[in-house]
Amino acid sequence: MDNANKKSADTGSSIDTTNPDALSSSVPVQDAPGTGGDQKKKGPKLSGPLRKYGHRFNIYLLFFLLVLVLAGAILVITALASRETKDPSAISTQDLSSDTLKQLSNSDATVGDPKQILNIQSNAVFAGKVLVRDTLEVAGQLRVGGPLSLPGITVSGQSNFDEMNVNKSLNIGGDASVQGQLNIRRNIAVSGGGTFGGPLTAPQISVSSLQLLGDLTLTRHITAGGPTPSRSVGNAVGGGGTASVSGSDTAGFVNINTGSSPSAGCFVTVNFATRFNATPRVLITPVGSDAGTITYYVNRSSTSFSICAATVPPANASFGFDYFVLN
């Protein structure tokens, strides 16, 4: 103990020899033999609770770095996708500034290029003419306050016209439906068939051929028009007798005046102005008392018919026959 106190006295420090812990901590530890004096000393180690919190801090740091990497990857993928979906041929837009408007009002000027779009947010009024050299596309409604002059118009969809005047020709390649009244002031020519679901009213209808699939109802008179057929007088009229025809190929009247010494035979032959396709049906009605005493008959063909007497008719008599011809 004296030697220990002596050494402490030599070093200039006081050591409590009565405390063994102080003695062990204060006495320098000598290096183990054979380890070398230049060996690095190990740093201080963390205790149990500090070591646990240190591991947790490392895990949170790694998780935060992972979140940053994922966010960066999402941003890169989004930028690449937006760049791929962008149309390279898309037309860029250009706003019309007030300075540009002043430039346009003072002189002719070119604004932008064909790949740009001119956006006018407010209403625009053009006091002069507007020339569009390329296609005009209207996304909304087109309203024209005055007359609209077009060399040609093609309508692919449904169109409504309050009033439309066609000065020249109107060609409709497809079907046409007219819901209201159709007024045609001049001629109408239909090269194909025509179908009417309702009544057809016209002051005059001229057709080359008329075919009725149903009943024919007439509320007025029937007038058989056409040229007057020619006639040939037969020997049944006698000496000085005459015969005349008035009417048409369809209907008419034959007037007969017998002379002296008439004989049995034909009074007159009526020659049709237009030949029938087949031998028609000829209806004869005697007119006058003298005609009622005659035994008459008819000869007919596709070109003519004859009114004849089977017996000798009365001499110096005037009578007649009405005729009606149907094919």
Tag the structure with descriptive keywords.
elongated, 4-stranded antiparallel beta sheet, 327 residues, disordered N terminus, alpha+beta, 10 strands, 5 helices
With strands numbered from the N-terminus, the spatial order across the biggest sheet is 3-6-9-8
User: H/E element string?
Assistant: HHHEHEEEEEEHEEE
Q: Tell me the Rg in angstroms.
A: 62 Å
Overall geometric form: elongated
Task: Write up what this structure looks like.
The protein is 21% helix and 18% strand. The N and C termini lie far apart (168 Å). It has helices at 2-11, 20-26, 48-85, 98-106, 289-292; strands at residues 92-95, 116-119, 230-233, 242-247, 251-257, 265-271, 281-287, 296-300, 304-309, 318-326. The longest helix is centred in the N-terminal third of the chain and has 38 residues, at 48-85. Residues 1-43 have low confidence and may be disordered. With 327 residues, the protein is α+β, with helices and mostly antiparallel strands. It contains five helices and ten strands. Strands 3-6-9-8 form a four-stranded antiparallel sheet, with no helix packed on it. It has a domain at 230-326.
Annotate the secondary structure layout:
Elements: H1 2-11, H2 20-26, H3 48-85, E1 92-95, H4 98-106, E2 116-119, E3 230-233, E4 242-247, E5 251-257, E6 265-271, E7 281-287, H5 289-292, E8 296-300, E9 304-309, E10 318-326
Parallel strand pairs: 1-2
Antiparallel strand pairs: 3-6, 4-5, 5-10, 6-9, 7-10, 8-9
Give a quick summary of the entry:
This protein has a domain at about 230-325. Helix content is about 20%, strand content about 20%. It has 5 helices and 10 strands.
